[in-house]
């Protein structure tokens, strides 16, 4: 088999979920497992967490159906709600919590003859302007839904735009807009994403929603996962599949963008952008071999990338190469590529086998 594997440490996910709960004593926590648990494998993550997690959050009904197979009794929240009227029937059959973010979704719900009422989360657009009601519209919808036969719990939810930028003025404004609606009667409230879980206790409410922190990556540009006490979950490991000597002045890779400034030893690694490693990673970006960092040499290819082994003479064909993990934090790679850890994790493609430990 091609020597490339994403090793997922399930004990690290458990540690990170427990840490989120410690940050918000007495609160419940939806573990956010949308997008195949950020690329880690939703069924495996949910199966491992279902005994300790208060609930799970997903983006859509298809994801919820998959999670329900692994967690028959868990509370599962549809963060974007339903996309057509018939989905409410399926949501009721599955026993889901459902977000409602506009009048259309509310009308669909009220027109349904459901086998059982749903836990509803009215979504407030508190300042992100992506989904949700304006404050006055939410008040009107609250009045329509309160006491409806289709509704069990009536809850309030919103989402921060800039909680990852500590001290941002919009965060305080969103908190104020959210708090202004707490004069209405809600059964539960939820506001805090990972960044707010870690740094904004005033946003914790009854339910928190840890996402990226579960997977051992940081939501902050200036604070590393290690500094936050998070444990990395995924280690992406390839291998050296070729080693060659390259004379001074010769180039490596597409576009001949890397030119040897000295007689060099170049290794080829079994990982490329079709596996999810970012093509935007510049020359000089680190990978780890024999616990030593070595730099990328030239452009990342679809199935391979090249590294400069000149200062690691003991490296040879077959040696393991850590693309990211405990020794090469994914957030460091993301920063070098001008992106975030979320994107890299969710872009690890299906052809990379996941190996579960812990």
From TrEMBL:
Modification N6-(pyridoxal phosphate)lysine occurs at: 34
Biological processes annotated in GO: D-alanine biosynthetic process
Class of enzymatic activity (EC top level): isomerase
Function in brief: Catalyzes the interconversion of L-alanine and D-alanine. May also act on other amino acids.
This protein's record includes keyword Transferase: no
Source organism of the structure: Stutzerimonas stutzeri
GO molecular function: alanine racemase activity; pyridoxal phosphate binding
Chain residues that bind substrate: 130, 302
Pathway membership: Amino-acid biosynthesis; D-alanine biosynthesis; D-alanine from L-alanine: step 1/1
Protein family: Belongs to the alanine racemase family.
Cofactor(s) annotated in UniProt: pyridoxal 5'-phosphate
Name of the protein described by the UniProt record: Alanine racemase
PROSITE patterns: ALANINE_RACEMASE
GO cellular component, one term: cytosol
Gene3D superfamilies membership: Alanine racemase, Lyase, Ornithine Decarboxylase, Chain A, domain 1
Classification of source organism: Bacteria, Pseudomonadati, Pseudomonadota, Gammaproteobacteria, Pseudomonadales
Catalytic function, reaction form: L-alanine = D-alanine
Keywords, sorted A to Z: Isomerase, Pyridoxal phosphate
Gene symbol of the encoding locus: alr
EC number(s) recorded for this UniProt protein: 5.1.1.1
Domain Alanine racemase C-terminal: 233-357
Active-site residues from the entry: 34, 254
């Amino acid at each position: 088999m091609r020597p490339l594997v994403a090793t997922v440490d399930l004990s690290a996910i458990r540690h990170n979920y427990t840490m989120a709960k410690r940050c918000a004593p007495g609160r419940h926590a939806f573990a956010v497992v949308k997008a195949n648990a950020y690329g880690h494998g939703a069924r495996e993550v949910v199966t491992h967490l279902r005994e300790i997690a208060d609930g799970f959050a997903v983006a859509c009904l298809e994801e919820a159906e998959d999670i329900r197979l692994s967690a028959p009794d868990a509370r599962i929240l549809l963060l974007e709600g339903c996309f057509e009227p018939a989905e409410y029937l399926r949501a009721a059959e599955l026993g889901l919590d459902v977000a409602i973010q506009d009048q259309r979704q509310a009308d669909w719900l009220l027109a349904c003859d459901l086998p059982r009422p749903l836990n509803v989360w009215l979504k407030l657009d508190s300042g992100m302007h992506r989904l949700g009601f304006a404050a006055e519209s939410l008040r009107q919808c609250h009045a329509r839904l309160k006491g409806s036969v289709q509704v069990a719990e009536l809850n309030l939810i919103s989402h921060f735009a800039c909680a990852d930028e500590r001290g941002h003025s919009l965060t305080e404004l969103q908190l104020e807009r959210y708090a202004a609606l707490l004069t209405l009667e809600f059964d539960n409230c939820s506001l805090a994403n990972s960044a707010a879980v870690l740094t904004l206790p005033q946003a914790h409410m009854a339910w928190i929603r840890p996402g990226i922190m579960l997977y051992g990556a940081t939501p902050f540009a200036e604070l590393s996962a290690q500094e936050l006490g998070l444990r990395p979950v995924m280690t992406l490991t390839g291998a050296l599949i070729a080693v060659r000597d390259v004379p001074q002045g010769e180039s490596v890779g597409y576009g001949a963008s890397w030119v040897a400034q000295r007689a060099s030893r170049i290794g080829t690694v079994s990982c490329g952008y079709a596996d999810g490693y970012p093509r935007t990673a510049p020359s000089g970006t680190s990978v780890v071999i024999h616990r030593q960092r070595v730099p990328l040499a030239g452009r990342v290819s679809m199935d391979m990338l090249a590294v400069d082994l000149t200062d690691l003479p003991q490296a040879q064909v077959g040696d393991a190469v850590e693309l990211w993990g405990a020794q090469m934090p994914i957030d460091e790679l993301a920063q070098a590529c001008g992106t975030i850890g979320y994107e890299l994790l969710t872009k690890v493609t299906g052809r990379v086998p996941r190996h579960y430990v812990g």
